[in-house]
Amino acid sequence: MKLSRRSALGLGLGGLAALSIGGIGVSLSRTAPRSPRAPLQALDERQFAVLAAVADRIVPGDHRFPSAWDLWVPEKIDANLGKAEPGLAVELGMGLLLLENAVAALLLDGRPATFTRLDAEAQDETLKRWQSSSLTLRRTIYKALNGLCTATYWSSPEIWRLVGYPGPGAHLGVKELP
Amino acid sequence: MSGQIIAAETLTDGVTLTCDVCVVGSGAGGATVAAGLCEAGLDVILLEEGGYHTRRDFDLQEQNAYPMLYQERGLRATDDGAITILQGRNVGGGTTINWTTCYRTPARILRHWADRYGLEDLSEEKLLPHFEAMEARLNIQEWPEELANENNRRLLEGCRALGYQVHAVKRNVRGCANSGYCGLGCPHDAKQGMLLTTIPDALGAGLRLIHHAQAVRLNAEGAKITSLNARVKRPDAQPDAGGGFTVKAKVFVCSGGAINSPALLLRSEINPNVLVGRNTLLHPVVAMPAIYEQPIEGWSGAPQSIASHQFVDRGPAMGFFMEAPPLQPMLAASGFYGFGKMQIDFLSQLRHVGVMLAICVDGLSESTPGGTVTLRRDGRIGVSYPTTPALEECFTFAHEILARTTFAGGAKRAVTLHPSPLELRGPQDVPSLKERRYGPLAHSIFTAHQMGGCRMSADPKDGVVGTDHRVRGQDNLFVIDGSVLPTALGVNPSHTIYALAHRARPLVIDAARGA
Q1: What angle is formed at CA B315 by the lines to CA B311 and CA B317, rounded to 5 degrees?
Q2: CA B469 distance to own-chain centroid
Q3: Are B382 and A6 within 8 A, CB to CB?
Q4: Which of A165, A174, A177 should one mutate to test binding to chain B, selecting the residue with the greatest count of B CBs within 10 A?
Q5: Do B335 and B427 share a domain, yes or no?
Q6: Does any CB of chain B come closer than 8 Å to the CB of residue A5?
């Protein structure tokens, strides 16, 4: 739940904006779409698609656990941002576009493709590169996205039973788990 | 005289309210001082940025509690995102959501303040009656060791096995059901935070409590503050959705905490000695999760009841103390830096997960000066907290001690909160911790204790406030909260703030009566 954000980025909004929209002509039409299942509150559709792709790599789910997409994690994050200070969503949105940016990826990583068009293995490699990058900006964006997706996923009541957590019902006079 | 609880959005837009004293912030400092002022017969307005929430609002679900009760909907962090800042925003402030641990200010810290900042007025002897008064009002008592939950018991047994100092902590509770949900709002009205103690005291003596009210700017004419501009800030709306109002008072008290109080002064262009926002201290926390054979169920039972101060004083090196956190799923997961299958594999065993914390004591030497609160260009508050070699050394050593204590407490494996977590299978693996990097964005770091930023000092040329809490250069402006602490404490700070606020009551009363 801990959104790390802020000018964090060391570049400030202006620098981040320039980076995130750089190469937009190359990458804009190539973002793999993901349709939100609820009206977006803070992000635009392109940013949402990148967030959805990231969330499913942060918590992909398995035969026991639902995926982030199954638990509507991207929509929940967007809704939370919609009620927060507007600058938070602006900066997170720019971070998502920077992750998606094919031109920046080509220049820095030799990867001429948008994040959403990569296969799962390549997406994981990209996230690992960002989490330990020598660029503070990339580590900050990774930590923000990882923190938001992780916290939103594990705060979902749907996973309580799966981890043996009884929930707070006993202290609220409620016996049944959701 | 009966007080009023007013939602700011119900006030007429642009209205001007008058009172004797306007207090900004309803946490440990603000509510404690407000109660004393009201009981002395003063007309007090208490502004709180967060909402007024009572037991019936506490559904104990993390996805609801953090946005409702914490600063920035639970999203506050340092500018680079490296340190997650847990800080309350509600009527009662941090005392509504803290884990109830209470300590008097350690004697060695008070001596340091006297030596370095001339604060002889804050001696053990002089503070004693204030600690005692608040201990009586908040029912601060030792929590029996036998009631420690399994997570705290691992800390107790680990420390004992290694010969480390360890003890049961004191808590401000009455009739605690040992539920474990302190951080999400007490479901049993057992926590003796401000919400159930000093705020009702003040309301009973005529307080006007205005919530959803953000203090924007103090307006000065020379050395006198004449008014305060506030705006409506509902937690479920964008900040520009509401209106505003003005408060005129004889005296103003900033009690917004160690991040918001400096920010209010900076917005008001009040910056004595150019020290406002400087030396912001966070008690940076690093953690060590582990898997145990037996169930831990760290979501249940008082979250914090055992502590070790074995390493709190390391001479010239930065010290730390060890405690334990609650482990509801979201909080337990939030430190995980890695992703994918590894995250699910570990957290799927949550019932068997225990966590120990090392809380590092900053501000006691030039090598750990803390961070800075600033105003960003868009008006939001910035917090920077640069790393130093002393801090990295402390993180490294603390990880080693946490790992040794974890295994001595019975863990079968532990993991670090690095991007690629290092897995330890026993004490023989502890030396491998030195291979990892420590510092911001190298692993997860948290803070639940914010201090400093409006440092107290007896020297008029050093510090933001004097020993009377009065802002240098201002006749009728006080700061009474954790921001005045010149250094971190090496213990949980709430009780120190209670005592300082209790001590400050007559100082503010005199100022209001003399105005």
Answers
A1: 80
A2: 19
A3: yes
A4: A165
A5: yes
A6: yes
* Chain B interface disruption, residue of A62, A85, A133, most B CBs within 10 A: A85
Same domain, B376 and B506: no
Instruction: Please tell me the total count of domains within chain B.
Output: 2
Q: How far apart are CA B302 and CA B101, in angstroms?
A: 10
Considering only CB atoms, which chain B residues are within 8 Å of A86?
238-239
Is B495:B131 a contact under the CB 8 Å cutoff? yes
Q: Which helix (H) or strand (E) holds B415?
A: strand B411-415
What's the CA gap between B322 and B288, in Å, rounded? 11
**Which residues does residue B46 pair with via DSSP β-bridges, in sequence order?**
B23, B209
| pLDDT tens digits along B28-40 | 999 999 999 999 9
Other CB atoms within 10 A of residue B253 CB? 31
User: What is the tens place of the pLDDT at every residue in B415-462?
Assistant: 999 998 999 999 999 999 999 999 999 999 999 999 999 999 999 999
Burial readout B484-493 (b: 16 or more C-beta within 10 A, e: otherwise)? bbbbbbbbbb
Closest CB to A58: pick one of B72, B339, B347: B339
Q: Which of B447, B471, B496 is the last residue of a domain?
A: B447
Name residues whose C-beta falls within 8 Å of residue B280's C-beta, 6 or more positions apart in sequence.
B258, B259, B262, B370, B371, B372, B373, B383, B385, B450, B451, B452, B453
Question: Which tokens in the block code for residue A145?
Answer: 């996205």
Question: Is B336 an interface residue toward A (CB < 8 Å)?
Answer: yes
Residues 6 or more apart in contact with residue B55 via CB below 8 angstroms:
B185, B186, B187, B188, B189
Assess if residue B178 is contained within a domain.
Answer: no
- Residue A84 contacts B where some CB pair is shorter than 8 Å: yes
pLDDT of residue A86: 85
Question: Which of these three, B421, B447, B473, is where a domain ends?
Answer: B447
| DSSP designation for B335 | T
| CATH value at residue B430 | 3.30.410
* pLDDT in the model for residue A105: 85
Cβ-defined contact of B382 to A5 (cutoff 8 Å): no
Q: Strand pairing of B4-7 and B208-211?
A: parallel
- Rounded CA-CA distance B95/B313 in Å is 27
CA dist A77 and A81 (Å) reads: 6
Range of the domain at B13: 4-141+183-272+453-514
How high is the pLDDT of residue A176?
Answer: 44
Token pair in block for residue A15:
């620098």
State how far the Cα of B99 lies from the Cα of B181, in Å rounded to an integer: 9
Its ipTM equals 0.94
Bridge partners (DSSP) of residue B415 are B423
